[in-house]
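tool_call: predict_structure(chain=1)
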Amino acid sequence: MHRLIAIAVGLICVSLATADLQGQAGRRADVLDVNTASEKQLLSVPGLTPALTKVIVDRRPFLTMTDLDALLGQSVSREQRTEIYRRLFVQINLNTASDAEILLIPGLGNRMLGEFKEYRPYRALAQFRREIGKYVDDQERARLEQYVFVPINLNTASDADILSIPGMGQRMLGEFKEYRPYKAIQEFRREIGKYVDDNEVARLERYVTLN
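tool_result:
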């Protein structure tokens, strides 16, 4: 009996460890996703005028944070952009984001930039929480988490991980899972392209991997 209990506990631990390896997008509390926010939400961001909001909507999706920064930089100062990014952002891929992208996170300096990069490659957001939590308190770690993501594995990601992608709903969750197993990213583009346009496929592709 004791042996059976030990085996069961071991299996649970393995299951939890496996689940912990999935990537996902950071939970957003105060920071809106620029690609999925409504016009009303965008207009609530200090520093965004109706005219600038229209330009943002017309130019979506932004596939990198530097793309958004380049657009806003045409008419908004660096200080104003920093304040905007406290409420609006394009989540960055923890494994591939450039130094310039990472440093667009408000309040992030060169020291924390180094810590972000030290633990690459991230296999899951839980790893980010654990490692960055060595340097900042829980409140700051949760704030930083809003700006980042780790790509999910298309073939093994849980429903919860898939649903963490900004703008993802139950219908598209079903489409993601229907075509498993994906053998190549081109297959993802082809199948998901049946339901959304090329721009949306490109936006979604940022959050996924087959590695």
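agent: Residues 2-20 form the longest helix (19 residues). Proceeding to next step.
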